[in-house]
Design a protein that fits this description.
The protein has 287 residues and is α+β, with helices and mostly antiparallel strands. The protein has two domains: 88 residues, DNA polymerase, domain 1 (Orthogonal Bundle), CATH 1.10.150; 167 residues, Dna Ligase, domain 1 (2-Layer Sandwich), CATH 3.30.1490. It contains ten helices and seven strands. The strands form two sheets. The chain has a five-stranded antiparallel sheet with strand order 5-4-6-3-7, covered by helices on one side. Strands 1-2 form a two-stranded parallel ribbon. Helix 5 crosses helix 6 and helix 7 runs antiparallel to helix 8. It is globular.
């Protein structure tokens, strides 16, 4: 008998650079079996001519938004007014502008290590301007549902609700409110967010809304609580968990709140698959 040794080879693409985002971009430039080195001296020459969609965290939706503002390359994004990009895309836009300029101070982490999640949030640009309180309530509740579901999946509760609104003329603002106790229900998050928005809304058409749960803790309630508000919150959480199970089995739109019937186009927004969990590193440098 002759022993045969099988040799398995892999083609790999390696990006070497001065920070994580540039290294990731370098690994995507030429595949397979290629090592690409991006330095501080040559990154503008290599990176700036690339399509903006090649940048880390720029997906199809963000690419479309940037194209709508005649931003097609990473260089065009890098040379755009950072305040304008932040107003247009929010904190995510500010982060992308930094990446386009080669700014990324997040340290390399050990494989398998977990990063602290600072917030769970979601935002959407609506298919039409929001001009009534009912428009705002429907959209805000949709976002709150996606945020609450994601928090429950990650066994988290928030102590602060934060909202972001952007008007059709790109003016924007952020507000937040402390909750009376930690929660992970769409009802309380949505109600709080709606009241926050309506209290700060100028009446001009809105085009984008964001809802975020901040100041997170693990989802441990006392087993027995004598506080009526917490007992009611626990019942609401059980109800929403049951709704979440139904959606998981039969589809997201298999069960909806009655308020969603008020405006089918708005309530058909797929916010569930766009929710995001933001780590502490995402917010470094936040004002």
């Amino acid at each position: 008998m002759h022993n045969k040794t099988s040799v398995i080879t892999f083609d790999v693409a390696i990006g070497v650079s001065f920070n994580k985002s540039m290294a990731k971009l370098g690994s995507d430039l030429r595949k397979p079996d290629f090592t690409n080195v991006i330095t501080r001296e040559n990154f503008k020459e290599i990176v700036w001519p690339l399509p903006v969609s090649d940048l880390l965290f720029v997906g199809p939706a963000t690419t479309k938004k940037l194209h709508n503002r005649a931003i097609y390359t990473i260089g065009q994004l890098a040379q755009a007014d950072p305040d304008y990009i932040r107003r247009y895309l929010g904190k995510h836009g500010a982060l992308l502008w930094q990446y386009a300029n080669g700014i990324d101070n997040e340290p390399v982490t050990v494989t398998g290590s977990k990063r602290e999640i600072k917030s769970v949030g979601n935002s959407t640009t609506t298919p039409r301007d929001l001009v009534t309180a009912e428009d705002i309530r429907v959209t805000t509740m949709l976002l709150a549902e996606s945020v609450a579901e994601r928090m429950r999946e990650k066994h988290l509760r928030c102590r602060v609700v934060q909202v972001y609104i952007r008007y059709s003329d790109l003016a924007s603002c952020e507000r937040q409110e402390q909750l009376p106790f930690p929660c992970c229900t769409a009802q309380r998050i949505g109600d709080t967010a709606t009241l926050l928005i309506l209290a700060n809304w100028t009446g001009h058409p809105l085009r984008s809304i964001g809802v975020r749960g901040c100041n997170l803790i693990t989802d441990e309630y006392p087993q027995l609580s004598l506080m009526p508000e917490i007992q009611a919150e626990q019942k609401q959480e059980s109800l929403e968990t049951a709704m979440q199970d139904i959606r998981r089995r039969f589809g997201h739109f298999s069960i909806q709140r009655g308020i969603m019937l008020a405006d089918r186009p708005l309530s058909s927004l797929d916010t569930r698959h766009k929710a995001s969990a933001h780590t502490v590193a995402f917010y470094r440098g936040e004002n």
